[in-house]
Design a protein that fits this description.
This protein is α/β, with parallel strands linked by helices. The chain is about 40% helix and about 15% strand. It is globular, with a radius of gyration of 21 Å.
């Protein structure tokens, strides 16, 4: 029997407001329990290790590195403020060469690998790649690292098609042989029978701030107001402030527009899935997550979903490109929302289409298939 290809796995994760990727957690658990591999998780954020502590030996930033980074992110002043973090990364990644494979579980994690000295082990990127960034282009800062990865794992076919599309056509131009479509499981809470209520409940969710697109949700609410084509509307955003501090800007904008009574901000809670499921319309505005869990929750519960291209890969899977708005065009999204509020049959048809896509999206591919693909890709490196 041939010796195992992977005996030591290093996972670099974090650096975003999103929770740990369930695929990577499951991969780490499989590596440790079924393949007797040692697994180390290098987390870019300091705090409760949570589920990581159950599947890996966890390493986190020093208090100085974490504080300096938080100040840099909040103030936008980097340079010297990032020196403690860079020093910590160089120290922690200094022995990465001893790993058989490095798994980067987020965009910031992939970029952090620039501090990994040569010779570098094979790198696998498990990323929720957005369809496009806020300017409509590609995330070029990640492109070089993605091209060097032996394998990039993406969660949906629309993202896969975008990643292989040439740069001239707005894609990343990645090698199809180094890409793997691997849908991951998402927790779904399905609501009971739907009851149409007045006013129309319009909901968004995610970290309160720029990355979650709360500012876009607020602009949409300001355009349409509390009456849409004569129908009362209620706007609710569910989420806690983003650690990057941009939530303060959103709250200031709400105050400046004097729409505190129009847009409700409620904290994230364990009942978020039920709140999303009870809405009449879910508006997806996230800038950095093509598959927000809340979108899947809403779709599976029979709630219609509309939103911007970065956050609506599920709508692409459902063949409903008409409900995806490109270029973060708030005015165009406002027109689509009005149509869906007014036309209950169109809203119900959209909800039915994406409910089927949600069922497919929450049927995960076997994690053993992903492990085999990573072993094959890592084994190809001389």
């Amino acid at each position: 029997m041939a010796p195992p290809v992977i005996r030591r796995m290093l996972i670099v994760a974090g650096g975003t407001a999103a929770p740990p990727d369930p695929t990577v957690l499951e991969l780490a658990r499989l590596a440790r329990t079924e393949h007797d591999a040692s697994v180390t998780a290098l987390l870019l954020d300091r705090g409760d290790a949570g589920e990581w502590a159950e599947v890996a030996d966890v390493r986190q930033p020093t208090a100085t590195a974490a504080t300096a980074r938080r100040v840099a992110d909040t103030t936008g002043h980097h340079g010297r403020l990032r020196i403690p973090e860079r020093s910590w990364l160089r120290r922690e990644l200094g022995e990465a060469y001893a790993s058989d494979v490095v798994v980067a579980a987020s965009g910031p994690a992939l970029l952090a690998l620039e501090h990994m000295p040569d010779p570098t082990p094979p790198v696998v990127a498990v990323l929720p790649l957005a369809d496009r960034d806020d300017d409509g282009g590609s995330p070029f800062e990640l492109l070089d690292r993605l091209r060097r990865a032996v394998l990039t794992v993406v969660p949906s076919r629309p993202v896969l098609e975008w990643a292989t599309r040439s740069g001239d056509e707005g894609g990343l131009g990645l090698d199809p042989d180094r890409l793997l479509h691997h849908p991951a499981a998402r927790p779904v809470a399905v609501a009971g029978p739907r009851v149409t209520t007045a006013p129309t409940q319009i909901v968004g969710s995610g970290p309160l701030g720029w990355r979650g697109g709360t500012d876009l949700f607020v602009s949409l609410a300001a355009i349409l107001g509390s009456q849409i084509a004569g129908r009362p509307a209620r706007w609710t955003w569910i989420g806690d402030p983003d650690p990057d501090g941009t939530g303060d800007d959103v709250l200031a904008e709400i105050e400046r527009r004097r729409i505190e009574d129009l847009v409700r901000i409620v904290p994230a809670a364990e009942t978020r899935a039920e709140q999303v499921a009870s809405a009449d319309l879910y508006v997806a505005t996230a800038r950095d997550d093509p598959f927000p869990a809340a979108v899947v929750d809403a779709a599976a519960a029979g709630t219609a979903v509309v939103g911007f291209t970065p956050a609506t890969a599920l709508l692409g899977d459902a063949g409903r490109e008409d409900a995806r708005i490109a270029d973060l065009d708030v005015a165009a999204l406002a027109l689509r929302v009005v149509n869906l509020v007014v036309d209950g049959e169109a809203r119900a048809a959209l909800a039915a289409d994406i409910a089927a896509a949600a069922a497919a999206a929450t049927e995960p591919a076997p994690i053993d298939d992903l492990w085999a693909a990573i072993e094959l890709a890592a084994g190809r490196v001389p």
